[in-house]
Structure formats: structure tokens, C-alpha cells
Fold this sequence. Notes:
The structure holds two protein chains of two kinds. Chain A is α/β, with parallel strands linked by helices. Chain A folds into two domains: 12-90, Fe-S cluster assembly (FSCA) (GMP Synthetase, Chain A, domain 3), CATH 3.30.300.130; 98-171, no CATH class. Chain A is 25% helix and 24% strand. Chain A is built from four helices and nine strands. In chain A, the strands form three sheets. A four-stranded mixed sheet of chain A has the order 6-9-8-7. Chain A has a three-stranded mixed sheet with strand order 3-4-5. In chain A, strands 1-2 form a two-stranded antiparallel sheet. In chain A, a hairpin with a 7-residue loop joins strand 7 (144-148) and strand 8. Chain A starts with 11 loop residues before the first helix and ends with a strand. Chain B is mainly α. Chain B has one domain (3-247): Ferritin. The A-B interface holds A 60, 62-66, 92-97, 121, 124, 127-128, 147-152, 154, 158, 172, 174 and B 35-36, 38-39, 42-43, 45-50, 52-53, 122-123, 125-127, 129-134, 136-137, 140-141.
Amino acid sequence: MKQEGDDNGNSPEAIAMVKAVKRQLEDVMDPELPFLSVGEMGILRDVIYKNDHTICIVTPTYSGCPATDVISKDVLAAARVVDPRSSVQIAMSPAWTTDWISEKAREKMTQNGIAPPEGLSHDRAFLTGDDRIIPCPICKSKNTKLISPFGSTACKASFSCNTCLEPFEHFKCI
Amino acid sequence: MNKPQHKQALLRLGDDALILGQRLGEWCGHAPALEEDIALTNIALDLIGQTQSYLSLAGSLNEGESQTDDQLAFHRTERDFKNLLLVEQPNGDFGDTIVRQFLFDHFALLRAEHLASQTFDLEAAAIAAKAIKEIRYHADHSSKWVIRLGDGTTESHERVQKSLNELWKFTGEMFTADEIDVAGIESGLLPDLTILKTKWDTAIDAVLKKSTLIRPENGWMQQGGRKGIHTESFGFLLAEMQSLPRTYPDATW
């Protein structure tokens, strides 16, 4: 009987293995945002099958993000539960962008007190514009101010709310 | 360009980022405000990340066994570092640090824009495409501070003008092409420094105008970093940066 494969010539077993690894990786969380999975963050780019094993493709958010090492280790450990020969490959291109963060993930950020990125990265006004409005994730007020363009991690800026007076972090739009 | 020249060009990219990152790291716990402490060390983190990428790539082009980023950062001696003299200048006061950052950021941004668009080295292009997003943010931050300090109080204006006057002599080196640059420009890897200078002038002048600072005259320009001839403070920086891996060569976290 002729075996059905995918466009890359992978066998049904290989396709099933990729699927199983992907499912396993759904539980790997971003260590700095433990309520979001690396898939939801757009850090896990793909899982492919090559030379009889799976390869998990991961991209760093920022060049110096210390979480990249931890994420790679966590992804590898999870993938190897399913495929003991799995490996991790770091892909620099295309460069990570907050545009890849899913709508669901953005909602989870707000629920956890972090203002998600506003707008799309090609419009730099959302990153550095003086008149951008970042709503407070706690009281939803639009009357907020930038405290510092940097924050506790490379990906965040520090804001404070003029209405409820709470400080909060904003995930930079890059 | 040949392989050794290619490696040298990448070392320069990595060393500029490494040495400036190391300098900014010295501010940790010492900045004038908590927010700036976090800002300067965040910028340092981005720069060290870029360093890891560029130095790993440079190390892979080594004749013979390839070198790791750590080997290149921690086990080279002073003459082997090819960073610009500008980035190794001591932190001084906050104004000195901001002006140094401002002058470098706009150069680094233009250079990264070229690197990201060239096809001679696609790995370098990928690193640069990522770095652009970070450098653009740094340039925005340092430019805003130059404006705030320049157009601030009489004292902040005078002090930051002095920083600008003192550091200006290190800007010529960014645009002086030597044989590595010439080979890099011919191959397409590196940008034409004359064009880069025109764009840099425009960017710098626009910020200086808003800051009410006066652009210094182009006088004698100090050079040597690209040849491994450094200024006095560099030896101290290196001694501190390399002390742990040199004392305990096999140390791991």
C-alpha cells in the first residue's frame, strides 16, 4: 500500500511525531510571562522533521534576552518527552515582532496587569511616539503617563496611571 | 573581501557593542535615578546580545578551529580589540554617558540599516535586522536626553555642551575607511562611509538644534581603535571585564 505523506515528503509517522511535539510544547511557558506559552508569544516558530528527528525552531525576542537560554532548554526538555532525538534551532530571521503575539495572549497580558503592545510594529509612533495612548490594564483609564521607556525586562516600558495611580508595565511594540 | 578581512569586519561590529555594553554596565547601581539605572543596563543588555551574535559569527570564520563568543570576549588581549575609541571612553557624568551614546547610536543605526539590506553575509543581515529595532529605541532615548539636558537648566546645558566638545574628537574614526572598510564596501557588506557621514550629520544636527547645543568644529580627530591602539582607560576596562574567566578559566554558572 502506498503511504501518504506531506508536501515535504515526510512519512505519516513523521507528521504524527511533529504534531505530538507541537502539542507537548503548548505547555512550555515564557519564564518572564509565566501565563503565556512560547507559542502564544510567537517565540516558538515551528516544529519540522529532518534527518529522522524533530527540530524545534525558536527565535529570541531581544538580542540579549536572558530568557532565550531558559526557553531553549525548556522547549528541548518538553520535546524530548515525545521525541528523544529532538533538537532546538535558533532562528534570527525573520526578526521577532510583537505583531506575532496572538489576540488571546494580549488579553491574558491585560488580565495579568501588563498593558499589551498597541498597534503594529511598522508604525513607529506606537513605540516611541509622544502622543501614544497606553490604557491602564487595571482601571482601563486612558489617562496614563510614561515613567521610563525601559522596565524590568528588555521587552517592557514603565508607565503609571493618572486615574487609579497604579504603576504598570507596558509590552513595547517592536 | 577575503575571509580574514570578513572576520575582522565582524569583530569590529561585535567589539563596538561589547565595549559600550561593558561601560554601560558600570552604571548598574550608580545612575542618577532608578529609571535611568534600568535604562542604561537594559541598553547594555541589548548590546551584549548583539555582541554574542556578531562575535559567534566572527569566531566561525577563524582560520583553523572556530572560536566561541566567550573566547573572543574574554581571552583576547588589548591589541586584538578593534572597537571605536568613542565607545571605550569612561562614563564620566551622566551627560558624558548620554552624549557618547547619542553619537554612537545614530552611527550604529545607519550601519545596521545597511547591514540588514546587504546580501554578502546573510547571517550578519539577520543579526542587524534584529538589532535595528533595539538601536532605534536606544537612539530615541539618548536623543531625547540630549534635548532635555541641552535645553534644560543653565548648568545642564553647560555640562552637556562640555561633554559634546570633549567627545567630538572621537567621531572622526567612525567615518575613516581603512583597508578592511574598503574591502567591506567593495563586497557590499559595509556601507559607504561618505554617504553614512552625510546621513549621520543630518540626524545629529536635527537633535542638536532642538537641544540648543552648538555642534563642535571638526578639529583633530583621535584614531586607533580599529588598529587595536586604545586610550589609557581601556586596559582597566579589560582587566575588570576579563578578571573572572582569566582567573578561573573553566568557571561555569
